[in-house]
Amino acid sequence: MGLSVVTNVSALVAHRAVTTTSDSMTRSLERLSSGYRINRAADDAAGLAISQNLRAQITGLKQAARNTQDGISVVRTADGALHAATSLLHRMRDLSVQAANDGGLTDSAKQAIQSELNQLKEELTRIGGTTTFNGKSLLDGTYQGTFQIGANRGETLTVVIGSPGLGVTTAGLGLSSVDVTGSTALASTVTPAISDAEGLPAPGRVVLAGDFTTGGLYPASFAGLAGSITYKGKTFDLSTVDYSGAVTATDYVTRLNAAALPFFGTPHTPFTGSAGGLTFTGETPAVGSTAPEAVALTPAYTGQSGASRAISMIDDAVDVVSSLRAYLGAVENRFEHVIGGLTTSIENITASVSRISDTDMAWEMAAFSRHQILSQAGTAMLSQAVRAPQNILALLR
Length: 397
Known about the structure:
The protein is α+β, with helices and mostly antiparallel strands.
């Protein structure tokens, strides 16, 4: 290229190189001073979009971890109250066992025991009605809380404590009628067995009053069975039968017979239910049987004392509370595992964001040193390019 005084192409080239190097050095300074590789969208458009999405995920996971901690707090609050309720139930059971000792207690002593039981029942109701978390009742049977345990929609865990009408209160646990001073006896009719010596052999029967087949009535009738059937020298406690899972009247009778058959060892099904009552039928006396043998095959019904029934009722309540505490313990363990998973996810995603958006200080410092040297060299060459046209003066002299 020829020499020109109008356009200094060499200076323009040097200026362009110096400008480019200066821009690169400025970006390196910005990255080194901020610690971020991406300071604006132009630095890495795709990287910016990915890192921002990941940052949103991280903040969501951190909030989910705090939500999960709230869940643990709710569960622990409920469990603490249930522990107190369990202690009350244990004391109530001890008092019921004491009251069942008829041979050593007077009526006034039983009344004193009942007075303490009444106070304990009131305290149980108070605990169930006043245990709250942030204003939400936990043990009255209405609590159903959904916790957001993830950063995305639908990542929830629902905790249900009790059910409507079945809270951890005296009424909810079925203890309102606990009274160790009285007794529970169902209306009953006994038909003695007839021996061969007395006439046509016929089995003995006991009929307990109640409706054991009509829909809507039979569950309460079976639940209200109290007292015992004595037959062939064995006494069967009616209140000990487990009706869990029973739906129809046939289901209830089946469960009752399933408990009675192995206990009495009878060759036939002893219990049958009807709208008029529950019938226990004994064996038919054999041919040649005598009157004493018929008496031995005649079943008898004995009512349940208030103390004995209280023990059974309180045992059922303890089972309910213990099952609920076991459920809450399992939920708490799950919450803790959730927090562990969230913490690991936060750690891994944060590392991913760092790899995308953070400055590699060693590499960037090396690049900055390179840009700095190039900037100094480009400035020196620009100075030389600016002075180059002065050589033309030598031609003009």
